[in-house]
Amino acid sequence: MERQKILTCIEAARLAPSAENIQPWRFVVIDDPHVKEEFRKAAFSGIYSPSRFAAKAPVIVVILGKKDLLANVIGRQIQGTAWYLIDIGIAGEHIVLQAQELGLSTCWIGWFHAKKVRTFLHIPATYKAIALIAMGYSAERPLSLQKRKPIEKIFSFNRFGRGEKERVGTIHKKSSDLDCLPQKSIQA
Ligand SMILES: Cc1cc2nc3c(=O)[nH]c(=O)nc-3n(C[C@H](O)[C@H](O)[C@H](O)COP(=O)(O)O)c2cc1C
Questions:
Q1: Distance CA 166, CA 20 (A)
Q2: What is the pLDDT of residues 79-131, one digit of tens each?
Q3: C-alpha dihedral over 49, 54, 59, 63, to 10 degrees?
Q4: Which atom of ligand 1 is nearest to the CA of 107?
Q5: β-strand 105-109 against 127-136: which pairing, if any?
Q6: Does residue 108 sit in the same domain as residue 65?
Q7: pLDDT of residue 173
Q8: Whose CA is nearest to atom 30 of ligand 1?
Q9: Which of 40, 108, 130, when mutated, tests ligand 1's pocket best, judged by the most ligand atoms within 8 Å of its CB?
Q10: Are residues 91 and 153 in the same domain?
Q11: Strand ranges (DSSP E) for the chain?
């Protein structure tokens, strides 16, 4: 795959927002087939073998998160939220969206042997490999996403968990509120 396209994706990730703008990410791009083969053996061994398919992609982006930054410590200890994981998710999704724009296909991979990846890539103790993004050209353009929960099951206005019927009836008088959504929204 053209390195220019990969770099465009990394640039999109570079521009992602992050808590306190700490930008806790690092990206290791594996595009050498020999390195990728060795990486595959390390990352997808044993119980992680179901993820082996990802190594068929020409490129694997390893997303690392820096754990020891002050904002992470504060977020985790006071609020109980690992902000850096949110940051990593946003940056990774920037990669995914940019790749899509460039005609590439991607797959997030969270199921991999993080310890072996650490050793293989010489990742320092202050970083953790959080996720992988396999990237390439799909044999056929996948036109449909997997099913998703219907919208009324995942959101509510003004308080947690009111049913869609009550919400539409009492707060938003128009029952046509949801009509603006694509009719073919994919539902589970
Ligand atoms: C953080 C994260 C981790 C994921 N890890 C894996 C994985 O290890 N193996 C896999 O096959 N898919 C993985 N996926 C892909 C999801 O299974 C997939 O996005 C989901 O089933 C929805 O399918 P769609 O993206 O094709 O619509 C992961 C996705 C995310 C966001």
A1: 38
A2: 888 899 999 999 999 999 999 999 999 999 999 999 999 999 999 999 999 99
A3: -70
A4: 15
A5: antiparallel
A6: yes
A7: 45
A8: 108
A9: 108
A10: no
A11: 25-30, 59-66, 105-109, 127-136
Give how far the C-alpha of residue 129 lies from the chain's centroid of Cα atoms, to the nearest Å: 13
**What is the total count of domains within the chain?**
2
Q: Which residue has the tokens 């036109």?
A: 143
Which mean pLDDT values do the consecutive 10-residue runs of the chain (188 residues) have?
A: 97 96 97 98 97 97 89 81 94 98 97 98 96 92 76 91 55 56 61
d(CA 146, CA 187) in angstroms, rounded, equals 9
Q: Is the pTM of this model over 0.85?
A: yes
Ligand 1: lining residues by beta carbon, under 6 Å? 51, 107-111, 131, 145-146
How far CA 52 is from CA of 29, 36, 37, 42, 48, in Å, comes to 17, 11, 10, 10, 8
C-alpha of 51 from chain center:
15
Confidence at residue 143, expressed as pLDDT on a 0 to 100 scale: 60
Q: According to the model, what pLDDT value does residue 146 have?
A: 78
CATH number at residue 98: 3.40.109.10
Contact 84, 76 (CB under 8 A): no
